[in-house]
Amino acid sequence: MGxxxxxxxxxxxxxxxxxxxxVNDLTCFVxxxxxxxxxxxxxxxxxxxxxxxxxxxRDNVEYADWARKGHVELTPGNVTDWRFxxxxxxxxxxxxxxxxIGFDRxxxxxxxxxxxxxxxxxxxxxxxxxxxxxxxxxxxELVLSRRLIHTGHPILRWNVDCTxxxxxxxxxxxxxxxxxxxxxxxxxxxxxxxxxxNMVMAAxxxxxxxxxxxxxx
Length: 217
Hints:
Layout: H1 2-9, E1 13-19, E2 27-35, E3 38-48, H2 52-59, H3 63-68, E4 73-75, H4 82-95, E5 97-103, H5 109-116, E6 122-125, H6 129-144, E7 148-150, H7 154-161, E8 164-167, E9 173-176, H8 188-204, E10 213-216
């Protein structure tokens, strides 16, 4: 289903969300396609190739099996190689009509510089509850109305299971890990999807009013 759906989505404009890994997290890139009244999403994940078994034991998931099945890509070495990631995103940009990419500025300077040099427009998205509230509520609306369509990616499913919505004093929502077993939970795919939906929302606004966003490049 995933490959067939991606092939059908190829002619349509899409928007990206990029969440770069901290030491123990996943790196994830999500594309979101707004088509008619639905939003279609698909993720790509990366982890260091030298660290697969240790990560599998720590997170209690089968990264090696996921890698064999093509659900996660292994980068050389024991830390995620950002050059490998940007090269893959550039390949995807040749396959799909990527209009903009939202990103978390943490550790992203070189990545964004590389992507913008290829003509990809990148937008810095704040990671606080104020920035995440609107796209999280939009995602909730899409899910409840069955208008958020995904490809059944197992790592994204796992990330969703690891995610809880936390409200601040002003009732702004943010995706966070649950307190219990926080160290073995990963929500990077959800965060990347929220950023991609944020970009979809900005594109839907004819004035392109990037509240809380900064265009880079």
